[in-house]
Write a structure and sequence with these properties.
- By secondary structure, the protein is mainly alpha-helical.
- Helices cover about 45% and strands about 5% of the residues.
- The chain folds into two domains: about 1-55, no CATH class; about 55-95, no CATH class.
- β1 (about 55-60) and β2 (about 65-70) form a beta hairpin.
- α1 packs across α2.
- The protein is elongated.
- The chain starts with about 25 loop residues before the first helix and ends with a helix.
């Protein structure tokens, strides 16, 4: 489930662990940026849209999942699929 800031299928906000946890690092960064924009007088909806526009998206080469640049780079680095982008779902389906 993507966060309110990103359409990436692998960006998550784990609400059962503290926001300072490493798993919530990107969500915390986006949340702090939203709070800063709100301090300057922007409504929350506009601040969220501004943060959404900072993301670039790429499609998985094996399915229709959308990945942000961070998760695309992680996929290329860790999943032995160079030069193809492979999302977590396709990767786990392959090894099981």
């Amino acid at each position: 489930m993507p966060t309110i800031f990103s359409k990436c299928d692998e960006c998550f906000h784990h609400n059962y662990i503290p926001m300072e946890h490493n798993y919530n690092k990107s969500y915390k960064r986006d949340y702090e940026q939203m709070e800063l924009l709100k301090e300057y007088g922007l409504p929350a909806e506009i601040a969220i849209k501004i943060i959404e526009m900072t993301y670039s998206y790429h499609n998985c080469d094996y399915c229709n999942n959308i990945l942000c640049t961070t998760h695309k780079n992680r996929a290329l680095r860790l999943k032995d699929s160079w030069p193809y982008i492979k999302c977590d779902k396709c990767y786990w389906n392959e090894i099981t």
